[in-house]
Amino acid sequence: MSVKKNEKKIQKNNKRIGYCLRCLAGFLKPYKAGLILGILMIVVANATFALNPIVEGQMTTQLYKDGEAILSGEPGAHVHFDVILGVMGTLVIIYIIKTVSQLITAVFLTKVLQQTMYDIRNALQQKIHRLPVRYFDDHAFGDVLSVVTNDVDTLGNALQQTMQRVIGAVLTFIFVISMMFYINGVLACMALVIIPLTVIVTKFFVTRTQKLFDTQQNTLGELNGTITEMYSGFNEIILYNKQEIAVDKFHDVNGRMRKTSFRAQFASSLISPCISLITYLAIGCVAVTGCIFVIDGVMPLGNLQAFIRYIWQINDPLSQISQLSAQVQSAFAAMGRIFTLLDEEEEEQVGRVAVRPEDIRGRVTFEHVSFGYDDHLLMKDVSFEAKPGQTVALVGATGAGKTTLMNLLLRFYDVKGGAIKIDGIDIRDMNREELRQLFSLVLQDTWLFKGSIYDNIHYGKLNARKDEVIHASKMANVHHFIKTLTGSYDFEINEESSNISQGEKQLLTIARAILKDPRIIILDEATSSVDTRIEKMLQEAMNTIMSNRTSFVIAHRLSTVRNADMILVIDDGDIVEQGTHEELLAKKGVYEKLYHSGMETENGTENRPLSLEKDEQITYTCV
């Protein structure tokens, strides 16, 4: 049973390697002209390399003959320097051809491989933007980042260092073995014992170390994910005095990285000394037999010298390949991760119905929608209608499904049953890109990129004029703040966006959303990071932009809930109550308890988050 399992693993591994090579060949195909020229130059370089020993051997043979003639006292015997100089001239030409060929190979192969890595990085970047949201729910950000950076670098470095040497090794085998048989068939058969023994040794180690290299690459991805997580949450780690826990977690992953790397590198490094031992034994046998042949006059001394050189030429590529086995195995492990990511299922973009934003009024209908992230349904039967221009507030406990509802509307996920329609059109019939052009989304977690404030706001509508950007900033009440900065709209935001406050970042993202001028607005607790003074100005701006537009607000403040045209109370993914503020209070149900326990004060107007007392059976909160 264990043998069958081992055979299945080997077959599976061979299929994966073959698949990776086919995928890599697809990326290399556009540059096949440069690749072919580079390979041709490798052929020329290795052909001249194989000619060197036998040409050098001609000098030795000539000197040996001339020495024998002189020592035997033959009349007119002398050293034939003209022959030796001719051989030396031939060697110089061979060396020049070899050097030029290697230079041309280096130029073309480097260009081809670096362009291929450029294309792979672009393909990964484009792929990431086409992946569904659920992929990133299941994969750590640091691990995905490791594929794009570390795995591509590992593959590029391995190809740069191994392709020329591996192709050269194969050609060296062909040329050198041919020259060996040309010199002496018996000695060639003795020397060729090196090859099967080397293959057996190499296969023995490679089959046992590939799993180690796969583990090494996966652990490297985990290490990157841990580092990214720690640095992104650095302030919280310091705040809660969890430095020791963070360091221990890093030491754990780093320790496993050290152990897996040591095992993989150590196991692969054993190949080279084993191959060298086999080569030394072969040289000893050939040297003894060859000397007998020379003494018997079967072969010239120079040919024996050349033959021993050829054995070393066989050993050289064998040793190189064994030394490169670690890089080759790392490259295959990296390729497996790269092409696994590239093979992930993408979001379907093509829609059956063409949609233009100017034709959409903004009527949103949920018709008996059911949805679950797995086989368990979170939403069983959600139905409501938001009319054009209405503001819909979503309230409910954390994890009740408020954000999930909006994710379905944006088609980050598709419904399991029922339908979501905009102006009567099922959103599954729309192109995802055209669908998302209808929305502006403002999240509690802000996202700004390194660049000027102008660029960050302009990101919402790339064809917007500067006066439109300024107008959007004024509507978001952030224009005055921008003017106080050095450089005004040209002020540079750093990579962490740490040179502006959290509230100011929130205002900039709202200005970006205003600039887009969408038909439908989604505010996911968008004002939670803004102080009371700024919120008042912001609320005025939001009232302006929400007028005549359908708006969905995950409620955080009392004023938002009270002024909403419709309030949806959500529990465990389903809508348990819906209506206006007054209608829901009159029902004296869940919302009424939410209001009196968490929102109502002596004057009834304080902006407090929705919550319930600890002793209440219902534990809704709106955060």
From TrEMBL:
Q: How does it sit in the membrane?
A: Multi-pass membrane protein
Domain ABC transmembrane type-1, by residue range, is 36-330
Annotated Gene3D superfamilies? ABC transporter type 1, transmembrane domain (1.20.1560.10), P-loop containing nucleotide triphosphate hydrolases (3.40.50.300)
What sequence ranges are listed for the domain ABC transporter?
A: 364-597
Give one GO term, molecular function aspect.
ABC-type oligopeptide transporter activity
Its annotated compartments are:
Cell membrane
Q: Provide one Gene Ontology cellular component.
A: plasma membrane
Which InterPro entries does the UniProt entry name for this protein? AAA+_ATPase, ABC1_TM_dom, ABC1_TM_sf, ABC_transporter-like_ATP-bd, ABC_transporter-like_CS, P-loop_NTPase, Type_1_exporter
Keyword list (alphabetical) reads: ATP-binding, Cell membrane, Membrane, Nucleotide-binding, Transmembrane, Transmembrane helix, Transport
In terms of Pfam families, this protein maps to: ABC_membrane, ABC_tran
Enumerate the transmembrane spans: 35-55, 83-109, 166-183, 189-206, 266-295
Q: Does the keyword Amino-acid biosynthesis apply?
A: no
The main place the protein resides is membrane
**Under which name does UniProt file this protein?**
ABC transporter ATP-binding protein
Specify the taxonomic lineage: Bacteria, Bacillati, Bacillota, Clostridia, Lachnospirales
